[in-house]
Design goal:
The structure holds two protein chains of two kinds.
Chain A (H helix, E strand, L loop, with lengths): L6 E3 L4 H11 L3 E4 L5 H6 L7 E4 L9 E4 L2 E5 L4 H6 L1 H6 L1 H8 L7 H4 L2 H5 L12 H5 L28 H8 L3 E6 L2 E6 L19 E8 L5 E7 L10 E9 L7 E9 L6 E2 L1 H5 L9 H16 L10 H28 L1
Parallel strand pairs in A: 1-3, 2-3
Antiparallel strand pairs in A: 4-5, 5-8, 6-7, 6-8, 9-10, 10-11, 11-12
Helix pairs in contact in A: 5-9, 11-12
Chain B lengths: L3 E7 L2 E7 L5 H8 L18 E4 L2 E4 L12 E3 L12 H8 L9 H14 L5 H7 L11 H11 L10 H4 L5
Parallel strand pairs in B: 1-5
Antiparallel strand pairs in B: 1-2, 3-4, 3-5
The chains are: A alpha+beta, B alpha+beta.
Chain lengths: ~350, ~170
């Protein structure tokens, strides 16, 4: 399968990249690992006239801790995140999520954490070859007026299937975006539009440069995902959880963040269900089961036929993924206390 | 379309190759260098049959721009054997019946080589994980995992491992 034609730039500096993005804006595409962009280009779903490669920007590949934040450069390869002891300790859910991205030995070396967050929304009816799509009317995301994922929908019902974004949103991560206009910091849970066609609230001249994860003392996190195969496939349901112990009673949850992924146009931070866990004991599995059910009910309304699996099954699995992730996160607390 | 010269060390031979911006590494090794061992299966990063080793790591050649590989060292399946002498890993694939139609084999070999270069004695689980990005429609994977395992740790008493030593007949 040939790639469409484009001109290629690989600037040596961040300023050089930003200047090119400013000059070419919507015509530019940012190439990091290429495991998402190049596939979409081969399918003729994306056709940037100018590719701006981050090949020489090694300064965007790092993992460090600074002023209460775990900071990860956007160009950090997935494998570096998986192998980082710092991330394992401070953000275990992110390691669990990254281990599940693509295939162990392959996408991990090319794919980057920034690219995983910014992978375009997907839909089983949209992410198909040009030949496949040519057999019928284009859908909303493909420039038409039909949605194959949900009957008579007047807008796109694609889904965000990023493992990394779901785990990072649970850990209340922030993104740092740079452009020639300056730097801009945004919370990941406020980074999404509700538009499946253009899912990110980001300008075409902006580049994702850094991910900040707050380091909260005593916090535990976990990530669970369901997919057809353990490798290569995208999640059809996933859940990221972070639990912070109560300051007065370490056996109780002080605050929780429950995020359900792969069900909607963005990962869903379920604020109400999360709040209901405040004050619950870490060994209260009944409360976790109830939270799983509540999460399922909250997420179910967003579900559309966009990932192949039976809709009722995916909805039911939200409960399981959330429940399992909660139990797994809570188990880390008892392990910490035992130590 | 204008071409750009890149320097690529392919199987230990440094070469200067004119490429178009939209050439993938796979197209360069197959179509320009005639190294047709690496296969294009899906062309979109799913099947793994185009796997090559780029600067020590296994990557999908179909999803790597040739320009991005500029200055790198690439090992393709042709770079494994020394003339007619196969590597232990390749011989093990033959001995253990890990090759049926053979289309996935170059990718399997490169993923397995990358694993063995990093960990000379991986357990079965680690082998399965390392090969999880490579799809085979014939073998059911068991024999491929056997082949990699026995290449890492030839097992005394394994009738297949001994074929070469005893010069035994397969039938």
């Amino acid at each position: 399968m040939r790639l469409p034609q484009f001109t290629y730039h690989s600037p040596d500096t961040l300023e050089g990249v930003l200047a090119l993005l400013d000059e070419h804006r919507d015509n530019a595409g940012v190439l990091a690992g290429g495991t998402d962009l190049l596939v979409r280009m081969k399918h003729r779903l994306a056709g940037p006239k100018v590719l701006v490669s981050l090949k020489h920007l090694d300064s965007l590949s790092y993992i460090k801790e600074m002023s209460g934040m775990l900071c990860i450069g956007a160009k950090t390869p997935i494998i570096d995140v998986i192998r980082s002891d710092r991330v394992k300790q401070q953000a275990p859910a992110l390691v669990q999520a990254c281990e599940r991205i693509g295939a162990v030995s392959i996408q991990h070396y090319r794919g980057t954490i920034g690219g995983n967050i910014l992978q375009d929304n997907r839909c089983i009816h949209y992410n198909q070859s040009q030949l496949h799509r040519s057999g019928r009317q284009p859908c909303h995301k493909d420039g038409g007026k039909i949605c194959y994922a949900r009957d008579e929908a007047d807008r796109c019902n694609s889904t965000c299937q990023s493992d990394g974004a779901t785990a990072l949103m649970a850990m209340d991560a922030h993104l740092v975006l740079n452009s020639t206009r300056g730097e801009h910091r945004v919370a990941l849970d406020g980074f999404y539009t509700t538009d499946g066609i253009h899912p990110f609230d980001m300008q075409p001249d902006e580049l994702l440069t850094k991910i900040d994860i707050p380091v909260v003392p005593g916090a535990v996190s976990a990530y669970q995902r369901l997919s057809y195969r353990s490798a290569i496939d995208y999640p059809i349901v996933c859940a990221g959880i972070r639990l912070v112990p109560d300051q007065k009673d370490a056996g109780c949850i002080g605050s929780a963040r429950i995020v359900v992924g792969a069900m909607s146009r963005s990962p869903l931070f379920l604020a109400k269900v999360s709040q209901s866990l405040a004050g619950v004991r870490f060994d209260d599995n009944t409360a976790f089961d109830r939270a799983g059910k509540d999460a399922m009910n909250a997420a179910a309304t967003f579900a559309a036929h966009n990932a192949g699996a039976d809709l009722a099954f995916r909805q039911a699995m939200v409960e399981k993924m959330v429940g399992r992730a909660l139990e797994q996160a809570a188990a880390q607390v008892s392990m910490k206390i035992a130590r | 379309m204008q071409t750009i010269d890149i320097t690529l060390t392919v199987n230990d031979h440094q070469q200067i190759i004119p490429v178009k911006p939209n050439d993938t590494l796979l197209e360069v090794v197959r179509d320009y260098l005639d190294l047709t061992g690496s296969k294009e299966g899906c062309g979109e990063g799913v099947c793994g049959s185009c796997t090559v080793i780029l600067d020590g790591h296994p990557v999908r050649a179909c999803l790597t721009l040739a320009l991005e590989a500029n200055g790198s060292a690439v090992t393709t399946v042709e770079g494994l054997a020394d003339g007619d002498t196969l590597t232990l890993l390749q011989q093990s694939f033959i001995d253990h019946g890990a090759v049926q139609c053979g289309f996935c084999t170059p990718g399997m070999l490169m993923s397995a080589k990358a694993l063995l270069d990093e960990d000379s004695s991986p357990d079965r689980q680690k082998i399965r994980q390392a090969l999880s990005g490579n799809i085979c429609r014939c073998t059911g994977y068991a024999k491929i995992v056997d082949a990699v395992e026995h290449a890492a740790r030839p097992e005394p008493g394994c009738p297949d491992c001994h074929t070469k030593e005893t010069g035994g007949d397969h039938d």
